[in-house]
## 1
Amino acid sequence: MRFFVSVFLMAFLSFASCLFFPWWSIAVVCFVVSFLIPNQYGKAFLIGFVALFLLWFGLSFWLSFKNNHILAQRISVLILNMNSPFLLVLLTAFIGAVVGGFSSLSGSLLRGKPKN
Amino acid sequence: MRFVFFFITAIVSAAFCYLLDTKVLLKIPLGKLLSPQEGIWQNAEPVDQQYSADLHFGNLTGKTEVYFDARLVPHVFAENENDAYFVQGFLHAKFRLWQMELQTLAAAGRLSEVLGEVAINHDREFRRLGMNYAAENALQEMEKDEQTKSACDAYTAGVNAYMTKLTNSTLSVEYKLLGIKPERWTNFKSALFLKYMSYNLSGFENDFEMTNAKSYFNKNDFDKLFPVHQDSVDPVIPKGTAVIEPKVHPVTPAFADSLYFNFIKDSAINVVESEKPNPNNGSNNWAVSGMKTKSGAPILCNDPHLGLNLPSIWFEMQISVPEFNAYGVSFPGTPGIIIGFNDHCAFGFTNSERDVRDYYEIKFKDNSKREYWFDSSWKKTTLRIERIKIAGKSDLLDTVAYTVFGPVMYDHSFNSKKGLNKNYAVSWTAYEKSNEFKTFYLLDRARNYDDYLEAVNYLNTPGQNCVFACKTGDIAIRAAGDFPAKWNGQGDFIMPGTDSGYMWQGMIPKEETPFQYNPERGFVSSANQLPVDTPYPYYLGRNYPLYRARYLNSQLTAMQNITPQNMMALQTNNHDLYAEMAVPVLLKNIQTEKLNSQEKKYFDKLKYWNFDNDAKSVGAIVFDLTWHNLYDTVYNDNYTHAPKNSAMPSESSFLESLLKDSAYKFVDMVSTPWVETLQEMSTSALKKAVTAMEQLESDGNLEWSKYKDTHIDYLLKFPSFSRFHLPIGGGENSINATTSNHGPSWRMIVSLTEKTEAYGIYPGGQSGNPGSKFYDDAIDNWVSGNYYELWLMKKEEEKDKRIKWKMSFSKS
């Protein structure tokens, strides 16, 4: 339960903070949430990773879907050298996930393991 | 221990953020770029995007409504003209800001600031050509005139008003990819854009190439290779029109024969010009009077041929204010409608192709470039220091000396061969003080022939054949512009810069401009050919294309009861008169008995070709390959020892020489002791072409459109933002002058019936955003030769079903 609450909180607060702050504010959010809600270190990493993966995957896929993937086709050829909007969405999600995972982990490390 | 891990992961997280936010690790800031709420995903415009909005700005004085139709063409209805120009600036910026930025950076020689070292040569060349100097002069003149000043001020304020609304996430894709921010717009940038058009349309003289050729060939050969006039020419103003009595009498300098028209060996110029505008930058325009049309009203047509790019150079719109109501295409970067029509008349342009840029050899006292020899004494130059900023590098300083002629573009520090120490100054009409904004300002408001005359008199550079038609029934064409009154041969070659006698001795007075007004033949037309026949008292230079015009005139002469649909067929006509004249030369000379069955097959394709460059034509390929092979074998051996960068004969000189002279001297190879004949040369040209065609056939590319391969490049050349392999016919000498990357950038037909009936299309789309469905949505229709109906909307029609979105602008 705590896992899902953390994932939801991280994703939601990351979304909210990016309405006002630069994209890297997701790192601050994940760090703070993990600091406040104690979890095992491995789990903390996973929470950040999953939260941002889901958020960025969902957002980019939705935007691209409404766009008929016009832009994603052009950009994926430009930076991935292949015409694959889906891969670009995956790459997006992965970047968010890695940043989310590591910052969540460091928040957790600062807080320390939960007792029991 | 925990804290050690904490520090490591904290540093890793921070490093990720930093590296993905900057270009330190990757060429692009990948994290910022792909973050869904800030990066490129924000530019993925929903295909059902709503453009309606309610906007307020302090600069506005009244209410302005903008109605967008289904093609995203804005119909702007403002209470006064300054509000209209403000809104036009806002809309240009909203849909085309990056393009405006890039084009003006290119014009100013500032590309290195965003693209880095790759652009240094471009930047130096444009600075040395004096593009900023030219734009400064234009700006002064534009700001002296109250009307153009307030129009430009309002336009600039509109562009900047859009910019202040931009956030990191609403920036266009390009700014995100390059990691830069837009720069404030200024009137100076609008002036720079017009000078960029001047560069494109009045910058392809061949002075260096011709001088090199002159230094190599003797006079007799030279005159054969580069005849001044062609027999087939059909000038804009028809032959036999009365000769004017000139007011300016240009005098050939004394000793020009020995100092200028000499054919001295080894005086070759070692300058290599790094960039040249496309010599095909031309156009067609014509207007037919009511006596030739079905409706009885004049019809005006125009298709400017320019480099084909995405986003397109044009943005289509309507501007309606109490003073005028104009529709057409505008240049993102300048106020007003450039080619279009209003409630009373229609107007369009083709390029004059006249030589308004000449070079002078300058003798400096020393490398400091502070003094130069002129009229028997040392004169002082003005030094202009150009500071070129380069992304990621320190600035480059470049010193350009200005002489009485203009800037010294080439000197020991730039593009001249090392140790040669030759210097060349440029004289260009684009440096003159002129206010081209006023031309369009007045044309948009023109109600009759006199208004049109006043408007085109403001046009200096680039000189244009301005076509006009009016609901009163008038049609007219005028070769307007600022043209030096030249003596015979002036400016064909580099001129001595030590003698004022070689300077331009004056401009051709505006009242001596060649023109036609309601001619008896019932039409006026131009397709970049020679403006007027030889009895014109001023030298007009060479290198005018002529076949497109001649074919166009033959069609217009024959046509009667014309409808706009007939005009669409004419504008998209693929017939090639050049080929029609050249193919008989090949058919007569190819020795069919020496051909094998495969070669015979292709020979027949040529023989039965209808001279139309249609998309699927095979004959057009056979002709193109064979003819170019023949051209190469005829001339190449004569150029083996010629200086690099020597002028080659024009295609028309080649054809007309072969038609006139069956024993054309250059057909014989210099390197062989025996005499080659045109028969042998033509036969081997075909045989060589067959090898290439067999390859095309096995690749499945034996169709004219696949061979020609028309593409429309994105301005930064990213392939996935461009369009390739367009199945379109046409060619250099067809009215549909579509070549590989060049062609009709806007096709317009306006029938001036009581309720104007107009059609148009350009190969692009209204939005410059590669993530919009309006980015390239007109291309397929353009390829197919289709047109959109142009709707000169009336304010009462605001409830019309064609309106999809509405933007309201008012005072805040």
## 2
Amino acid sequence: MAEDIKVIVFKLAKEEYGIEVDKVQTIERMLPITRVPKTFDFVKGVINLRGVVIPVIDLRGRFNLPENEYNDQTRIIIVDVDTTQVGFIVDSANDVVDLDRGRIEKPPEVVGGVKARYLDGVAKLDEERLLIMLNLAEVLNRSEVSQLENIED
Amino acid sequence: MDMNQYLNMFIDESNDHLQSLNEKMLELESSPADLGIVQVIFRSAHTLKGMAATMGFEDLAALTHQMENVLDLVRNEKLAMQEFIFDTLFKSLDALESMVQDITQGGEGKADVTAIVESLQAIVRGDMAPAASKAVSATPTSSTPAEIVQESKGIQLDEFQQSVIEQSMSEGHQALYLEVFIREDCQLKAVRAYMVFDMLERFGEVIKSEPSTQDIEQDKFDRSFSLYYITQKDEAELKTMILGVSEIENVTMTRLDAESLREMSATAAKSSPISSEILPVETASVASAPVVEESKVAAAPPAAPKAAAKAAVAAPSRTIRVDIDRLDVLMNLFSELLIDRVRLEQLASEVKVPALTDAVEHMGRVSSDLQNIVLKLRMVPVDTVFNRFPRMVRDLAKSLDKKLDLIITGAETELDRTVIDEIGDPLVHLLRNSVDHGVEPIADRIAAGKDETGVVKLSAFHSGNHVFIEIEDDGRGIYRDKILQSAIKKGVVTQEQSVTMKDEEVYQLLFAPGFSTAEVISDISGRGVGLDVVKSKISSLGGHVTVYSTPGKGTKFSVQLPLTLSIISAMLIRVGSEKYAIPLTSIVETGIIKSKQVRDLHGSQLIPYRETHIPLLSLSRVFEVPDFDEREEEETEIVVIRKGDKLAALAVENFIGQNEIVLKSLGKYLPDIQGVSGATILGDGQVALIIDPNAFIK
């Protein structure tokens, strides 16, 4: 008997992604962002979240998807993984679902332009909806990013 | 019962007690006759013992118990403090400290302390003869003799017995005080005791025993008995003989001389009226008052210091312990409040309702008071670091066979908690360095015409936004040539460079990595105490170390530290739409230059500044600011920044003003960014980056 987990669902381009609710600290509307120079392009800068300075990254940029203008649907999801706090800028976030862990399947090689290493698995919500579970540790892994940058140089 | 909830309290309090024990012991060492200090030490040891026993740390309790025994004797003037006792007590303190350390790290607080316990017991036993002579106890009658033996650890002689001893001593016999311990599991104590007496009688004469021979024969004694004995036998021989009797656990003997005997008679004279008075008093309890008073008079000399000590202890500690995390939370909440205050002020000035403006102004005043207090909460006196140094220096001087005075001033100077936590180790290094290599051995000092006692001064004081901690010795100083020789040998500097180097630059070589391990200069900087580590630690705290030295006269290490790591004064500047903060400490001045003053030289830009030219750096280009370029302006605002002796100018768009800012980290996710040391939250709630000027000057 697999356990049920609660998952925050957010949208990026056409796909729906999920992050386990206990990794999410809060979801915010867009906040003023202070640019931080000389860092990765997808790092949009830092925000002041109730007195704490938190870096935010554009998840589209992180997955090499074309970046969008921000609008009133845009949300910043603040995740907290191993005491590292980071904000993810996503197209929208408006759902929480219960998910049976057993229904998460191994992801295919590439889903919606996102490489499988960033993914934990794929779950079918119903006939039409496919939920892509993110592997946060990999998404936040910096060393892998800097390697990529080096190759591109 | 789960004791865990008390564990933290236990550890904190134990550390406090150990600290105060250390301090008081040092104090006592300088004035060994002050019994008031002994009282304080005794109380601390006693409390520690009680706590340890409650928490179930038996070894800890056992060791403190033995210390207490020794201290008790001292306190009651039965034992005079002397070097050996000090050393043993200090050793015990070290052992206690390591046990508490072990407990702190989750251990059981177990340690093998038998050696220390034995020497403590030896002190209690060994000095018993003079102790016994002063013991004021009623003559043993049919009451409970066993108890008296345990408590008084001595017996009293009457005049006749004394004169017998005196006489035999003058005839060349030796008078001994013996204490014989019988094994606990012994079934026939009286028999064993009789065997001992029998043997002793064959080689000498037992003058007096305690308990009395009668009581011993009737088995009315605990495990030990003591006696005065006159013999011509050798002490060691006697000892083996007594130990030869089966079921005898141990025997201690002390040789008596004329002096200890005289002391005895003096006390005997004083004590006899008291003890004789006690008996009649039993009938009328009211009359007991004068007796008590009289015994107090007998103990008159220690009374005064005792009273003084009590007065010192009387001031109760008016502090509470707060988790440092909570202070951080408080600080964060407060900075949010500040931001809201600025918003309110803005709104109030827009709405222009007098009542609202008044309220907001009042809130502004209250919050700035609050800010002061919140900041002060994090400040801790440097004494918390300094207080362990006297002990350390004492031990160090002892092991090096040097004479040293450590003079501490400004221990009340306050520093941010985070700095305090980090500064301890570097200071230990510097102090060791001064004691070990600065101050010369006694012989050298005398040869140099100095006082044989070296002086190391440790001082702390405020100056502007900084705190200085200085360690100064009056030792042999640093010889420039010796450092340079070694540096040239190591290839750190070339021969040519060495000629032009200033003294200050030469001294800084001491802090070069790898330099300290050099054996060549072992008489200066030593066996690799790691001055480079000291320097890097202090730099990481935002401080500097400077060395001043006069060969033959002494050396001074001056450590400059920022007052706090969490709040700094900064200049806020604007570049395009972005705001940045530059720490005021590295700003030399601000100014305006005309674009035609800027010279291009090999691709870099220079501007005239005073008598020289300094490089001009463009913040907008370094930070890739999209909406500003000073090259399009006719006049540019500049901030002249400094790193050591080097200067540079930063071109900015305009100045916003000076502000106290709260330092925040950029978060773990971002890698270190060159030129940015952190972030702060401005009054409008926006984040501004703090510029690290050091990164701009190569």
## 3
Amino acid sequence: MSNSLAIETQNLGRIYKLRGSKKETRKELVALQDVNLTVQRGELFGLLGPNGAGKTTLIKVLTTLLSPTSGWARVAGADVHAEPNLVRPRINMVSGGESSGYGLLTVKENLWMFSQFYGAPSKEANERIEALLEMVGMKDRMHTKSSDLSTGLRQKMNIVRGFLTDPEVLFLDEPTLGLDVGASRDVRKFIIEWLKADKERTLLLTTHYMVEADELCDRVAIINKGKVLACDTPSALKQRLQKDVTFEIETSPLNGLTPQMMEEQPEVKKAALTDIEGGARWKLSLVDESALARVFNLFAQKDVKVMNLNKRQPTLEDVFVDLVGRSMAEEESNERSQ
Amino acid sequence: MQTSTSWRSFRMAAWLGWLIESNWTDPFLFAVYSIVKPLSGAAILVIMYGIITQGNYDSALFPYIYLGNAFYIYVGAVMTGVSWAVVDDREHYKTLKYMYIAPIYIPVYLLGRGVARFITGSIAVFITIAAGVLFLKVPLHFADINWILFIVTLILGVVMLALLGLLLAGITLTVARHEGFIGEATAGVLYIFSGAVFPLDVLPAWIRPIGYFMPTTYWLELLRRSLVGNVAQAFPTLANFTNMEILGILLGLSIFFGVISVQVFRYCDGIARERGLIDHTTNY
């Protein structure tokens, strides 16, 4: 492996064996399938996909928490399965959307303890804790027991825990999940500043927020059902769709009109649908603007009224729709119903 | 490097364990709890003994039972102190995965987490024995105590219990539900078969070998002998063995169970990684 690579995976696979009742045969869930990725040192790499796509499973494998069932992965130059003890001093991880931490300990105690597990000198650790808490606007809560913190503040504390040890490779699993808009913005700003401070630092971020991936990441891998569908810079991914014209149309209730019917129209390449209050929101990928007439005709035939119409620049969401055939929200609800 | 990693893992785990153990309430309530809990446990046993023997507290059986019960506090405290850390970190604090990815030795970390329970257990044992000597005429005379035997046995036993705790911690790692009962069930089995509150001779002959295979049997016997030698030797179970012979058996069984415990933990740790159980929470 080249030294310039922070993360490398080759045909990485993970299958969970699911327990059913005693009479049932064991089912298998393919969480990762032939994942081949390379992440350069100094890169902010995003994994984008709906819930259940395999993002967290991939992070668990890369952080040595879970053994792969096939293939291999190297992080910071060491094999995650065969050499976990070489990987661990060089990495850290933060999972969003959970309230982890020792509630009986203060914020400072929690953070100091983890710094000690990484062998940081106590004085240096304390200085770093104060600096990081200042950066996330939590210095005044340093001596608060973590059980007395709000969910958002507790998550911020965890984010500080991840950055505290100054890892070579940091894994952030949905770091802004459950945070309000302001706190999410703070976290994103903090991530960018942390990376800027040292060009050797690498960060792998999972998210199902398209804007977050678009705004932060140098490169993004779009992942669904355990497979990497595409991997490139956000702008390169979006350029794949530049040749199409994308419209977002809000309509009255559908009266039986389906995305499949819409896609049967010539010059309609993709149609994705999201329910909104009092109607539906369509995302249509058209060959050119003239196809809009056919779309309006179809709406008229089904007595569907157009409430709003926007021509859109392609987003990563559109890239996902193009690759999967469904929006991320549809994919998640489809997964839940199975 | 390995030494510093081990020491770091142990030291910080002990620090964390103590804060968790002692910080759940204010210091006064913690002190009251620490005194009342062991005395209540001892009181139940003393009352039961008094009813069954019609108040015959002068019998050699009374100090046998009383001291066995007092030192048995260590079994539950140290063993479950180590294994419960898995449940605590994984289910309650959701930090086990962060411990696992930190550059520490997890077995040493878990042993460190048991230190706090050892300290609170020691306080409970001391209070129980002191109450027995002061109020219940347990025949313990400082001048007659074999201190060397007592200290060596105590240390060896606590290490043995901590290693058994590691075995339970390994099993706990692989069990997603009912994990809290593993420690209690094991402590219960040891309570019956280790001669804690009755000599093994009371048990049917075919069941006694289980007790003879338990290191706790020899540990409790040696602790009694070191404190109240003559009284302890009044019971036939291990009367034919000298102190050194029992110490040898205890050492041998401790090494045997220690090796088994480390191997079981390693195996279970691998299973937990295979099955993705390190951060598996059930909200059970």
